[in-house]
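Need a sequence for this fold. Nothing fancy.
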């Protein structure tokens, strides 16, 4: 197998969907798979001038590529039906597979999640569904499959040696259940480990795309943004930083280069994509956090060169840093 991975280096919403669709157009993949999370994700992409949002369905669907909801995912049948409907002509039943090991998000999980708690979840039932999975009382898709094909990921990945796989991570490294800012995290493995646990062979990994933005955002129950800084509000508006799943405003901070580098190191990132430079350009704001200090890079060139230079110097696996300033292109 040959596998490319797209992973979030922040708190989700880095633009993984855009990078995934870009790769689907550029390379020929046999399968696009998700391996963690469920309907909490919201991947926004632009195709033929249409704005499309996927949640549990891999972005491969939009490009007509076989799409797998992998063994580490959680899924709710009604939400899946709705998502399929909303994708309209971009959805094809015969392209969607669900591993029989994926856990079912029951209506009880959703109700429980919606009832609240400090984490400020997306209310899609993820936490309770994963809790039941780990307590070994969960229900799996294969126990009672619905209209989608229940499959064994092993066969899809290993029966044919030449498969070209695109793994689409959900959420981001700092929302990871183990490495994120616990308890302000999601309930799954958002990084490299999620891909490996889903069946991707370590030796098959070709490229790891780590995706970040030129600034950081977080959505959830924690007070995260500096309320006294007007620039945060400007970035939120200019960058349309409102959740794709829940519509909640995302809190904004300047890009923390030290944390970005840690995330890239731990996930063996080979290609770092830094999105939304158009937003910073519009506001002419080139500030970063570096070793816990706010530093003004003054201009775009210095901003880019500092990130590029530091990341390449610190992250052994890294070979390319790509800056993007368009919602549609990488
Ligand atoms: P949960 O995943 O719905 O349990 O939510 C846990 C935390 O992760 C909350 O702060 C959510 O806002 C955040 N979260 C979950 N999925 C995403 C996502 O796809 N993008 C951004 N934040 C997310
Ligand atoms: Mg999102």
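Here you go.
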């Amino acid at each position: 197998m040959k596998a490319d991975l797209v992973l979030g280096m922040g708190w989700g919403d880095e633009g993984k969907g855009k990078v995934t669709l870009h790769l689907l157009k550029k390379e020929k993949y046999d399968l696009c798979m998700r391996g963690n999370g469920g309907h909490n994700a919201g991947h926004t992409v632009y195709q033929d001038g249409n704005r499309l949002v996927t949640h549990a369905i891999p972005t491969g669907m939009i490009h007509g590529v076989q799409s797998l909801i992998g063994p580490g995912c959680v899924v709710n049948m009604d939400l899946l039906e709705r998502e399929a409907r909303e994708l309209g002509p971009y959805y094809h039943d015969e392209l969607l597979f669900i591993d029989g090991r994926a856990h079912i998000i029951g209506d009880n999980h959703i109700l429980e999640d919606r009832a609240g708690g400090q984490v400020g979840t997306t209310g899609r039932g993820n936490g309770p569904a994963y809790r039941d999975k780990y307590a070994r009382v969960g229900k799996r898709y294969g126990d009672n499959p619905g209209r989608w094909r229940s499959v064994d990921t092993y066969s899809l990945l290993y029966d044919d040696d030449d498969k070209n796989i695109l793994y689409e991570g959900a959420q981001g490294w700092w929302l990871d259940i183990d490495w994120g800012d616990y308890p302000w995290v999601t309930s799954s493995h958002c990084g490299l480990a999620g891909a490996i646990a889903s069946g991707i062979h370590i030796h098959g990994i070709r490229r790891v795309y780590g995706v970040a933005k030129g600034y950081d955002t977080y959505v959830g129950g924690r007070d995260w943004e500096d309320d006294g800084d007007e620039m945060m509000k400007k970035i939120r508006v200019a960058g349309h930083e409102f959740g794709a799943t829940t519509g909640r405003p995302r809190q904004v901070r300047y890009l923390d280069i030290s944390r970005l580098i840690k995330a890239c190191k731990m996930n063996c990132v080979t290609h770092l994509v830094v999105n939304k430079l158009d937003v910073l350009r519009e506001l002419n704001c080139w500030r970063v956090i570096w070793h816990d200090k706010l530093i003004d890079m003054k201009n775009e060139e210095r901003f880019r060169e500092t990130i590029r230079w530091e990341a390449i110097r610190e992250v052994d696996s890294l070979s390319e840093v790509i800056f993007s300033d368009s919602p549609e292109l990488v």
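For context: The chain has a mean pLDDT of 97.
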